[in-house]
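Hi there,

I know you've been waiting on this one. I reran it after we fixed the sequence typo, so this is the corrected version. Both the input and the resulting structure follow.
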Amino acid sequence: MPSPTAQRLNTHFIMDREDRKRNKNMLSLEDTQQWSQSLERLLESKYGLATFRNFLKSEYSDENIEFWLTCEDYKKIKSSFRMSSRAKKIYEQFIKAESPKEINIDYHTREQIKRSVKTPTMHCFNDAQKIVYGLMERDSYPRFLRSDVYRTLLENLAAADATKG
């Protein structure tokens, strides 16, 4: 009878092989190549988003993607109490001057948000979110596409594809 460790490894191998058959949990070369089509395409991909976030963290510039994702979650809040509480936290963390993860937005937008957080709506961060998305699209995203992280990932997936077929 195989040891418990061998049984777990065998079960893991079988599950892994089944996942590959279904291709549900595997990152494909085609998916990864599509990330270069647009920032939107990259952020729609679970693996793309994770890879982009890790890249930005490695450059100590992840405040923009963190803010953008936080805003996406914020827009899903239904409770006005939770919305008010969360809006204040977002303001303190990302918007307020000298905040821990201060994003780069203009004074007018910062002041507008400061006022709107007093009676927040689901759209009170939209202008800042658009600015941040534009910054990522023009700066972080092109750097990511030129990065060793992305290029190496493409090369490794291309090599894996070549050995399959």
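Quick highlight: Residues 106 and 128 are 9 Å apart (CA to CA).

Best,
R. S.
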